[in-house]
Fold these 4 entries.
Entry 1:
Amino acid sequence: MTRSALRALFAQLLDAPGVIITVSPDANWGEFTSNFPLQSAKARGQSAEEIGQTARERLGSHWPGRIGLERGRLQFFMSDEHFLLELERATREGAHYGASNSLSGQRYLVEYVSSDPTGPLPLGAGRHAAWGEALCRLLEYAGARVSREFYLNDQTTSSKLRSLGEWVVNAYSGAFGQNTGPSDAFSRTLGGELARRDGAKWLQSAPDERIEAATTFALERAVESQRASLERFGTRFDSWVKESDLERDGHISRAFALLAERGLTYELDGALWLRTTQFGDDADRVLRRASGRATYFAGDVAYHIWKAERGFDRIFNVWGVGHKTYIARTKAALLAAGLDADKFEFLTVEEAALERDGVPIRLGLGGGPLVLDEEVEEIGADALHWFFTAKPAAKTAVVDLEIATRDDESNPAYAAQLLPSRLATMRRQLEGRLSVSPEAEQGDWNAGERELARLVALWPDTVESAATERAPEKIADFVSQLARATRELSRNTAPSLAPTSRRLELLRASGNVAASALKILGVDANERF
């Protein structure tokens, strides 16, 4: 039983909707706990003891185990019989165990990464890719149909792309022995490629024409590079939306017309402004500069209007933490356009950082910025997915390379990857014994086996709460607990009295749950790790 199902029983049987129920930090306190008796005593005019006893009486026949009451706190213990039923389910349902239909029929759009196409994919964008993909898989596990989308800021007139084009021109000119300005490793590579492809063709062209050609070339190569990096990292998008296409297809001009029709734009100093302050923003925003060029914000507004027009039931924006200030203005623009802003969910994810033995690493190979490909090469995509999803979105994902490169269980990513293999080995060993000596009826599990069964039974609640709370780190924490329990069981010398068939079912069920959890995190569940 999950906490949501238990909350529904509180609402139905005790007229207590929205009761807070938490996972117990210690199995000695039960699987779940609630201080409902203490919290409601004053409002109900009864003692916490009286309320607790009433709750036990009314919930008892519906809860698969016993309900304890200690100092005004309810403790929900699952029975061994319930654990057996859950193990049977987990074995029978395989990868579907713990999945639900709560979001069945719902179409969700998740936009994430959307990195500037100005170079190789940064390490921080890799964190956003891992976290965003884990969110998508959690939503799919709950039954939603999820579309993954990357928004490409590809206007060659943007200051960032223009600067990249200028640096490529510098490197290109340097290939022919001309004086050069600043460049970096990426722009020097592109400058050399452009020289080999086009020869000295651009040396005789006007400066603006030369920069435009270099910018267009650099944009194409940057997008190719980032797509390839994401593919290697196991992140694939259903659609790549270009800002330039929004303008070409008339989305930006239609957005201007819609906002003007609603009386929410005005001209000032030759620029077109949107009255976002009427909808909670701290300042009105420019949509079109005096030069006649649409702003970055205008493209965002048009993009979000188009998102809403495509009929999704819910729309997620997974942004870097640096975009927090854009949330209020984007919501204001949605309201200005007459859209349901509550259909949009804005999630911000912190960056990633590297260190070695606690010392920060701020530069990549060759003195350039930290890029995803270099770390995939050093510690592997699976390990990076682990470290990037194991921390809450609000915290920086710090990867200590001294730990992340260890081939032992002091490296939590290694311990997680080892889990399916360890469970499979234990299962094969037990199957071998069973084939040699048929089992006889015996007794109960030992403590280690019971803890593993307990974790399997908690998987449906874990994955449901991770999806509801948008918290992939709950899955990583669950995997760590499962790995720890499995390791301790493999080293446990205490004899087991449980029938061999029951122990095999425990290992199979645990293997199924481990594979499902690791898949959500983007980590390969290899039984031969």
Entry 2:
Amino acid sequence: MRENIKILYDIPVTMKDGTVLYCDVYRPDNEKKYPAIVNRTPYLKDNINPLSGYMHAHKLAARGYNVVIQDVRGSANSEGILDPSGHQDEDGFDTIEAIAAMEWCDGNVGMMGESYHGFSQLAAARAQPPHLKAICPFQTSWTKFPAVYGFGIFSPVLFFWIYGRAFDNEKYHPVLSEETKRVMKKYLKDSEEQLRYRPLKDMPAACMDEIPMLSFQRELLENITNIDYLKEIGRTEGFEQVQVPAFELTGWNDFLRDETIYNYVEFKKRGGNERVRKGGRLIVGPWQHGDVLSDSLLGQYFGEEAGGDAVDISGKIADWYDFWIKGKDSEFMSGNPVHLFVMGINQWRTEKDWPVPDTCYKKMYLHSEGHSNTMKGDGRLSWDRPGDEPEDCYTYDPDNPVPSEIKPTKEFPYAAVTQDQRVNENRDDVLVYTTEPLNGELEIIGPVEAYIYASSSAVDTDYVCKLIDVWEDGTAFCLMKKLVRARYRNGRKEELLEPGKIYEYRIPVGNTAIVLKKGHALRMEVTSSLFPDADCNLNTGGRAGYEAAGKKAVQKIFHCEEYPSCIVLPAGKNVSK
């Protein structure tokens, strides 16, 4: 097939403001006009390999498409300054309309890509370019991205991403002095020191004037609760504005899994027309974030049918656009819209919807004798409602946060989203609740929520819940995790705590599809930090990122008849008591 493909290099596309962005085009080697599928990237069209991952530009071209890969504003030779969030609506609109008018395009345009590329599609679709017919926003979110964990919750890791783009652009426009590059490399090497810097707004790594993009990290921190600002930079939902159907894809081990599934659900509810509300598709595999959809992860092999190539994702992208642009039907488009990989039994299933219709939800309750600290404590999970039990207590110290990613060691060699949690579970500020080894299979397919009753000595703090699959050898693989900030427990309106008062927290922990095997156990962790995914709550109630010192908070988790903390499972085959 590759012999029948030709590549057009550095095709200029001019935005309304006069800025010129450049594209490469992979297309059939003839003079016919074909529809276009656009990928807008900050990662350099010269760097990515469009023949690998799920994209397979040569296969899509062979199916009769122009595959257009564009360097976004400020990347490589594309003009302007790269803004991690800005210009997406406008540049997306202008790009779609310009590509539709190219002599090699038949006027029909779609888009594809994951993560940043996915948000660029959401933003372009929100702008409603007339020639856009459908989108494939994989592994993405309207609102969450580097520097934003959630409303009012900052993630200090954006400077890593900005440094990467700055170094990339040096290959095209060398503007950084040797001293600046030396300092940047030093900050990257000493990244933990930078991430812990206080006040966070003065982090030296984010205050280098020689790198204009860094101003965005500072501005975002300053406006982390400014709704008008978030709207201005495009980081607000726009389901109702989107007029074209969306094909969503994510993985159970993708850190944007829940956001991508949320997109599918909300497009069905709130999409701008019937095509959007009824025409979507969702695929969730065992994969982690990125374009390489592997059949294995951290020593777990999910079977020969698990990988992206085995599922033929590029073929399904072509089927998707064949349907919406060329009017051709296929098994993918005529069958059930939801495709799920069930871990544990390593099987694909198709469903009519998500959550799966007629799912049964069952509460599993927290128990202990008051000493659930560490995995050696007495914390338990069971179907039995608690009676008269003492609360568990731990001290959260923002100067010693629980890491969101565990550094690999010889004993625990895993470092990924779904990594082994036993290192963290040796900490006294981590409460651990575990079932007895299962005497049968436990199927969990759907969204998981926790309801936690807690008090704090602070006026504001964080709570984190994790759900974990414990293997027979003790390996504790994380299935999902979620942090809530107490002051935003009821939404965007700030409500500080009354110290010592017991509050109920509803925590949407995440989505999964897994069958836990006999002999495995289910575990839940409760703690108060997820650093550096989320900034450390200093427990003061002050402005995020603007204070130099925090204070310790004494946290109590209640599980008794009056305050029955629990986790709500979409449980199929339940464990017998």
Entry 3:
Amino acid sequence: MSLLEAKVKSVLSGDTVILHNINNPKQERTLSLAYVTAPRMRREGDEQFAFESRDFLRRQLVGKVVQFKILYKIPTGANREYGLISLPNRTNLPDLAVAEGWLKLRDDAGRKEDSEEAAAILEKLQVYEARAKAESKGLWQESGSRISSSSELSDAKQFVEDNKGQDLTAIVEKVLAGDRLIVRFLLSPTEHVQTLILLAGIRAPATKRTSPSDGKEQPAEPFGDEAQQFVETRLLQRNVTVNVLGTSPTGQIVATVRHPTQGSIAPFLLEAGLAKCTDHHTTLLGGDMAALRQAEKRAKDSKQGVYQGHVAPKASTAGQNEATVSRVQSADTLFLRNKAGAEKRINLSSVRQPKPTDPKQAPWVPEAKEFLRKKLIGKHVQFRIDGKRPATEGYDEREMATVTYQGKNVGLLLVENGLASVIRHRQDDTDRSPIYDDLLLAESAAQEAQKGLWSPKAPSAKQYVDYSESLEKAKRQLTLLSRQRKVPAIVDFVKSASRFTVLVPRENAKLTFVLSGIRAPRSARNPTETGEPFGQEAHDFANKRCQQRDVEIDVEDCDKVGGFIGALYINRENFAKTLVEEGLASVHAYSAEKSGNANELFAAEKRAKDARKGMWHDYDPSQDEDAEQADSGADVNGQNGDAAVERRKDYRDVLVTHVSDEGRLKLQQVGTGSAALTELMNAFRSFHLNPTNNQGLPNPPKAGDFVAAKFSADDEWYRARIRRNDREAKKAEVVYIDYGNSETIPWSRLRPLSQPQFSPQKLKAQAQDAQLSFAQLPSNPEYLADAIHFISQETADRQLVANVDQVDKDGTLWVTLFDPKQSDKPDESINAEVISEGLAMVPKKLRAWERSATDILGALKKRQTIAQEERRGQWEYGDLTED
């Protein structure tokens, strides 16, 4: 019989091979080597030397083109063919295998053969066998260890744990599909394990299979057979290196399989279009997933295999954009404002906020939102639209975007901290994040570290109490808040330009907060209502500057419906002043005077008027002149027929202990209080000199805490209150409650004020707030500094007499200060001296009790006129009150 040619697909045992047509791999035939037999390989356990015999033949033949000749057939059920095989290097089988001792002659070899050729072959094989026996080769070894081969893996997870990170040597025994292989792990020379593995990172089309539920045959998916054949021709019965990574939900091993010279098979399969990437293995592959994505992209671009009809989605032409985060609606939804002021809503690509409907995730909803608010509100970010999610029931169309802040992907930041989960996309989703694999890896790391959502413990829920719900509740909270200054808060909602909902986390309080000292035009509350001129502009401005921002508030009073009145500071600037300066609010004289911010508010209003901003766009200066003339002609007995408010006569001995940067005074009243303070300070000093009392604070200080603080100027200990705290720098701003001055010092200069004999309950804070009557200090910072310096010099280390002209509701004293050694007349006061130096002026808009003191006002105005004529202080360049 003539020689035939074929390619060896696989080796079934030491004496049998599978051959396939060189041009058509689907045409296969089984060939057994003539006259010989090998130990059997069986599922229940291999015969001794069965694997070694087969492995010898496998190494010689698999993947090679050979010539073969059929010698005879045995017409059994399989109709098996028997013959000889020749390799290109002229090696002949079974000759070589018999010579090496891995095959033995069959007992019935040649019994039915009577040809000379058969006799010659048998004679030669008998010689080879006799020599192998003599040399104890192969099967003829006197002693040999038996290989333990198992076809089942009892615990796949444990196997992965034991071998993760190792390069395991294996042989691919069978290719079930393009992504499913049965491999033999060669764990040791005497221990083998056969098991199913899944190729990591890919899913190949399924091959023809029988459904286990109903026994029906299911056809192969498109390109399923091609994928299987692709892997078979490259890996079947080849030595490979396997890295086990994990297990699938069904307990199958997920692993990478590497060819000895070509590397991992997965990228080649993807690039041929015979598989798709699967997201389920991203966390197992880590950074290696990127190479698979690139291979898949090349297949899509060239429309290979399963991507033959692929249509690439239209690339976004928008590119990278810049915007400011104007509002954080939730942990995955932001409102961005561009340079033109236009606002748009976007959703973060591929991430989802904690589910409000999930009892385990719901407590993290406010935590995630607050995390994002602190990071992003008011900040400049870059964003790129990744795609659009079409409208569905209950949801409008949404733009999915990648947002970066300071080079960090915001979605990734949330996932890393366990404050968002990653959306599981369908294969055809076009709106997935460009760093989707990184998101999956970050989620896996957060789960492993039990961060945020993945923590077994829920965060403590913050319940805010609405103190503006009723006037009674507001008054109770007012007592506490009015004692504090610059209380940290968050603007939760902007109701109008001057009315806000604020949250005070420190107090778990929710307040309706109204700006004092101004009146802002009203905006329309609904589409059918008409607002006042510039009402909407003012509302929009407040929204832009304040929405969800961290602010500080000073609470002064409350209104009739439970709203809290006071000053709101954003970036340490009074927002009421900002509104007035932009021409979006006017000064309300009475409340401005009452709040103590009249000077800066009137100065801001004047600047807005001069610049014709906002509501002053058609301002006529003559209107103010007419109003002033009307005021000056008004009856000093009062306004609108009301009785005049008398100026008090209440003389007290005082010491001025501090003059603030705004010109406000801190007074100590001389008498029983000052005597008690002297006694307390002596005891306080002795207490802190004792080494046993030198313990620092047990915990970081909090705003509002009373402490003992070591003043940097004299290194003495004084009673103080924490105004604000810097945890990063470990420093605190303290106010010395008996003197009124403040400074920022490290925590190391603080001690507890827990001793009852020194507490403010035993002796109340001795520094009282006060302001000079009849005097309006300059708004210009340079002249204001000169005024403060002059007042400090005139009052330093001197016991003075103060006439308390009026006491505000918050306890602030309006005083006229006299030096008893120099003042002989009512108009010879320190207030008058400040005006004489040109460092203050008589207010244009007087309080009712100031207007009643006509004799004092007349004398002070004369001093002011002289200061103007002599160009003193703020008058050095002329009359400030002239237009």
Entry 4:
Amino acid sequence: MIKKIARSTLQYALVLVLAHQCSSFAFAQGSLEADNYKGWRLSSLEIEGLDKGLTSELKRGLVIPSQFSRFRRRGPVFYPKSLTEDIKRAQLFLARRGFPYATIKPRFEPHPTKETFSLIFNIIPGSPVAIESITLEGFPSSVESAARVTPGLGKGDVFSEIRVERTRASLESMLKHAGFAHARVTTDLWRIDSTHVKLGFDAEPGAMYLIDDILVEGANQDLVPLIRKTSGVKRGARYSPLILQEAQDNLRLLDLFRQIRLTTQEAAPDSLDVLADLVLRKPRSFETGIGYWTDDQIRVRANWIHRNLFRAGRGFSVGGSASRFLQTANVSLWWPALIGARTREVLSAKVESQLEDSYDLLSIGGELSSIYRHSLATTMRFGISVSNVDVSIDTEMSDAFIEQGGLLTVVSFRWTRSSVDNRVSPKSGTTTWVHTEWAPNGFVSENHFLSLETSGALFRPLSNRTVLAIRIAGGIASPTGESLDLLPNKRFYSGGASSMRGFKRKKLGPLDTNGFPLGGEIKLEASVELRTPLVWRFRGALFIDAGQVWRYIEDISADDLEIASGPGLRLQTPVGPVRADLARRVRKTEATQPLWVFHLSIGYPF
């Protein structure tokens, strides 16, 4: 006989646990053996009888394992009550994953001389509960065929609360994306026998809604047209949660609001208004900082921003920075959503002075750029800049820098994508960027070149606390047209705290007779780093770096690659890790450079 037993998977799991608990909990309720170890120290807890994935997941949900501390030499004090509660938790855990008839038998392995013992949970899963059939009821004909394909469950699959709930949520989301804003999907379970159930999904779709208008609260009147345009919400569009998510992402990219909350309210029986409840950020801010790095030594910076100086989100900033090698000053004006909802047009002017060992360079110019945020993860930037470059050569090698500057017009494009879970201290995800510059013939330019540079990093957790980080970067550039050489600031350099750590700043690659860096037309770098916690806020690292810079493209050779390795120490702070790295060169193709190099900086190298 088929009997309906629950309206939710949790209710079903509880029914099966209560039916089975008399035999399963017999030990926890009545055994005297556990009382014999009351007050003893527990040295370890192991689980036998489950696969690795279920074992790890079960341990995270128990109380006893959480009492162990990696900083405590002795294990926790044992109380029989904790064991009883954990057996109940384990029984419910297994029932919710299709094993309601599991038997859990604790086993004790004592060490009497130390009054410690090991505890082993011997689990016999028992017969699993399988899904006999799946039914769908109440789904509109417009989505019914798609709904029948969606379930990630099938006949004969082991009942799992997680998979059932995931399927229910997926079906409900499908209805909402089809315009049924208030759709609900519930779960029904019928027990066929002790090891089989019938699963049903019941839909209550409600009415299909269209978007009527977007209502704005908490923003200045001059920002309302910008908010409407940037949100991308269009009147008459079919409602979908995706519309609200995209609108929220678009508004966040404006950098005008401290809080963004989008909800819906009925405007008519078949239409909804989107309500944007916003909290403005302070429009003005001043940022300043000072720090010490082994690459630049002392570095200072300051920046003043007004996010809405010219109304309608049009902002202004002025700032600058200074270090031993580089000094900059810049002003910028921007206009959001001038072309599209996710664009920002920027007009900027910049003065830059470079004081390198082999040259001094002064650049004065401006740039017009358009930034397109395809998503929160992906950005594209297109720009055209015109500048005047003045170069003073400080090397004895007369052929090191042939081009002496002049007018320079550059067309640039940059694509960036980041999917990391944390931008300051990533543990998983990837970052990738590609940057290209072209100074074409026939433009207002006395220097012509083409360059391409790219970098990619991968972050993978090896455990709950240890992270493997891998980076590969490279660049290639060449003079074009009548130009015979690349300008000094358009060449590639390597070596330093965030580059190839076996060398000091820019010391890897071509050098003049005094050991001053000359840069090159092609660069290749690679890094592998293992990051793991130590104590308190300290993290340790082991790394291997490789790389080289070649003066000309035709000089490239794998035999020239330099390799370095070493340990690192990081101190986690609110602004990012303070990082110390000590690198030792493995290969010694550059005999004039030191064997050991120490770096101190802020932030991860990649």
